[in-house]
Amino acid sequence: MNENIFWVWRDVRRARKQGLDAIKQRQHERLADIVSFTRVNSPYYRELYQGLPERVTDPTLLPVTNKKKLMSRFDDWSTDREITLEKVRPYIENPNLFGKEFLGKYLVITTSGTTGTHGLFLVDRRSLSVIGSLFLSMTSDWLNPHDVRSFIRSGGRIGLVLASGTPTATGVSITHFASRLGKSLRALSVRAPLPELVAGLNEFQPAFVISYGTVMKLLANEQEAGRLRIKPVMALVTAEGLALDEYDHIAEVFNTKVGNLYASSECPFMSYCCEQKWLHVNADWVVLEPVDADYQPTPPGEQSHTVLISNLANRVQPFLRYDLGDSILQRPDPCPCGNPLPAIRVQGRAADMLTFPTDDGEQTTLPPLLFGTSVYHIPGIEQFQIMQTAPTNLRVRLRLEAGADPECVWQSVHNNVTRLLSDHKLTRVRLERAEELPEQSAGGKYREVIPLR
Fold it and tell me: What are phi and psi of 4, to 5 degrees?
């Protein structure tokens, strides 16, 4: 494959014009190619795929994998034999290495433990080309010529309000491309107090705003109150899903278009929304299978128990028939927007927010990702869960990695979360160390943050 981003972009546009049959053909060819490559270069997959046909174009022939299985065989899972967990770990534990290329050719990202296991993944240059090309394709679908002209007239300024100091898929992928824009880009840390974010955006006046769902809700509230005063051509919501009417509210408040991506660290380019609020799967680069609890296909129009994905771009750490854990519904008929790609909606991706009384008698709301970005880079943590048991009380549940020092880990968690709360004038909030481990929700996932009800 030609790994040039513009070659990939042209192929994506060509496939869309040729229709669903051309998209499926590319999917089958790429699946067969990556399965062949993987079983030769990954000891884990070579063992797992013994007895399979030489050429595999049907994903249902492949055994199911998940985060726990892959992380337990990290060194054997990778197709580059120089990669070991011991060598990679510093890239998520040492802030000086965040965003730096591992072995001069891979980006390192980390993911939360909502399925019970903390993930550490590598992104190769092939994947970055696909991410970049699909992002170009999505924005060209979202923006009409008038929008593009407005964007150019504004100086093409892009405002990122993302996590800093933690190598997440969203932050690493977007910053990798946007960092080439120089003064046209301003990255603001989502950990900053809300007034600082508002002041920074007011001063920069971005034409394109990119942030997490819960943060975009907070920014919309500030715009509605008159404290935030920006006129973006587009607002892009990533990483966290929202209720459908909340996208309408954001669009109305900012008088702009709102884009939405359904993606994951395992596959950062899975889908994007249309004006009908359906998410269209980039089926030429990802296989997405809605299945029941026994991994049997769920018919279109019915809610799945989980979804299996096969990332057809990432060769360094292949995710093939991987249990992502999200429940989805696939549209049984063509989407009215005219996009030929499969259309889905996702359950369980709307994030919760925590509301606290501040030191000056007001109230403030924090998105859950702030706690994740404050905690997950601490060595020794496999999983955490914060439960709000009172307006000013947080109970912290931890599952530690083998050999971790419980007292040392707790002190780091206490210091980081206390600093986060203090930055937002929440010095009265008390942290309580729980004896119990993080608990699963009814849907089988581990919610990182459980608000007071």
Answer: -70, 130
Residue 270 near residue 276, CB atoms below 8 Å: no
CATH number for domain 5-127+264-347, candidates 3.40.50.12780, 3.40.718.10, 1.10.472.10, 2.40.50.100: 3.40.50.12780
Strand partners of residue 352 = none
Report residues of the chain scoring pLDDT below 50.
167
Whether this prediction's pTM lies above 0.70 is answered by yes
Strand ordering across the sheet containing 185-189: 185-189, 158-162, 208-212, 234-238, 257-262, 271-273, 279-281, 343-347, 327-330
Taking a C-beta distance cutoff of 8 angstroms, is the pair 242, 192 a contact? no
Quickly tell me which residue has 């096969």 as its tokens. 310
Among 164, 176, 163, CA closest to 132 = 176
Contacts 24+ apart (CB under 8 A), 258-262: 258/216, 258/234, 259/138, 259/139, 259/142, 259/234, 259/235, 260/236, 261/138, 261/236, 261/237, 262/344, 262/346, 262/349
Beta bridge partners of 273: 279
Contact (Cβ atoms closer than 8 angstroms) between residue 262 and residue 241:
yes
pLDDT tens by residue, 342-395: 999 987 555 678 899 987 778 888 888 788 878 877 888 888 899 999 999 999
| Class for the domain spanning 154-262 | alpha beta
**Element of type H or E holding 395:** strand 393-400
Give the H or E element holding residue 413. helix 406-423
| 50 CB neighbour count, 10 Å cutoff | 8
Identify the burial level of 346 via C-beta atoms within 10 angstroms of its C-beta, where 0-12 means exposed, 13-18 middle and 19 or more buried: middle
Domains 5-127+264-347 and 154-262 share a fold: yes
